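User: structure tokens for Phosphatidylinositol-3-phosphatase SAC1, please.
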Amino acid sequence: MTRENEGLLGPYNAYYLYMVPEKFCVVPVNDFSKILIIDRLSGAIKVEHSYSERDLPNPQCRRLIYGILGLVNLLAGAYILFITERKKIGTVSGQDIYQIVQTEMFPCCPTKEKIMTNHQASLNQQYISMIKKILSTPYFYYSYTYDLTYNMQRLYNVQHDFLLKPLHERADERFIWNRNLLDQFYTLESPDVGAFCVPVIHGFISINKCIINGKTFLWTLISRRSCKRAGTRLFTRGVDSDGNVANFVETEQIIEFEGYQSSFVQIRGSIPLFWQQYPNLKLKPSPKIIQENNNMEAVNKHFKSQEPYYGYQVILNLIDQCGDEGDIEKAYRNSIRLLNSERVQYEAFDFHKECRKMRWDRLQILIDRVAQTQDAFSTFLLLQKSKLLSSQEGVFRTNCIDCLDRTNVVQSMLAKRSLGIILKKLGIWEVGEIDNTFEYLFKQVWADNADIISIQYSGTGALKTDFTRTGKRTKAGMLNDLYNSLARYYKNNFQDGFRQDALDLFLGNYKVSSFEKSDSESPLVVQRGWKFFMFPSLLVISMAMFFCNVIIPPEYTTKSLLSILFWGSMIFITFTVTLRDGPLFVDKPRLYNKAIVDSHYQKNVV
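Assistant: Done. Predicted tokens:
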């Protein structure tokens, strides 16, 4: 048993689920001495030890599962979620790491679903769809014996007593995506409950066995997405009052070779000011700083909260220094100046200006500028899991406006530089360029990381991944960026309200009230005004009539030309009015963020 999994019970990695009308019974495979019982009527949870196999329900009602994700309360009562299919993706520090492939949720009390009205059942189904929407977003990962919420350096530095705690109790809450679902399990006094609970992270993991110069090593990339201030691209920006920022991701690059373990950590996160960029049907809504909020207090809270985890922080701000993004950059720069912290350094690099006309080679200017700092930070390096050779003393905090496309390009370049240094130090790579086969793998993995993090935040794959994959900007890559940009536009305007609600429900920011089905109207019910139906209909009819008048007549007469002019004018008028009243047609959040979003639109939209 390694130091990382000393306190874990079992460890178990598969369970039998017995489902009978009055209870769920979860039993570790090959160990019937311990059983978790969930009463389907009262919701009571307990662990018992006096069971034997003959005390269990009929084996015909059992099925194989791989862990409990937790419980969520909806209109029809509590639902329990199980992991029903998994895929082993490799090992970290000798411990198995799994990706969730399939989950299932079951009502604790099925009779409640049967006595609901059709309207109530429809609302309940919407909530179920939200939970399933999040669980279908790639990817969720877990381990029975390794704490994926901690990077290697933090795991090494924790006290021995801390490691004796069950995994779900000691995991970093910033990265436990089912923390809310496990609430009822946290309240149980039995230490054995940890053998059944599976804390999961959301993000990206790639574990690869590599060979360079005949030397075999494991290269792993782990991106942990924070569940604090989680949300969608345009509805969740900036910082909250607790200092949590949107799209915060910790990315760790690990090398394991002949007893050596190396770790290099980077972070990304939205600019820690109070600012918004809500969708309004425009291609690129203007970001706006919320002046009435105390931005300095938020900046201070954010960086102070990060210091215990990462030490010295170097901000790499890649946003435009003029135009719409320019105001945000100036405010951020000024906030860091007023913060006046020796532990926080600000580096601005106008990515679009510096790399215009496809001069992406100019990114090396930034890498060279921070090279000395990166060398001073060093990396975490451990021998035989006990002898500390070096620690990482600081972290690069990279951001662009979304913390996606530009951010990933720069992070991959910093990771490549760190990788070259550590491979030389371990004697894997001596001189010259990195092995071509490995370099290809490196680029593909970092591009995959970019795509997955982007899908989780924006709904589409990342932009600019052609540079990450090939080392140069290509026309095919630009066409792919155009497709992804259009897809982002559609999803951000017409689907992200539902997705934001799904995140808030899954993470516990919004709790479903039992009164929603009786005493008060559900927030899911939205009353649409006449404009919502009239203007899009007129626009579609006008476009149809315009093209009919252009295509159908064998020859144009004065009457047909006037008809074309009329319907063309109707297209212009209805399109202009629709764009002016854009927020009316945007899919907005209806649950936790409803009041905030509605207030913004009332203040800022004419």
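User: Anything notable?

Assistant: The chain has a mean pLDDT of 92.
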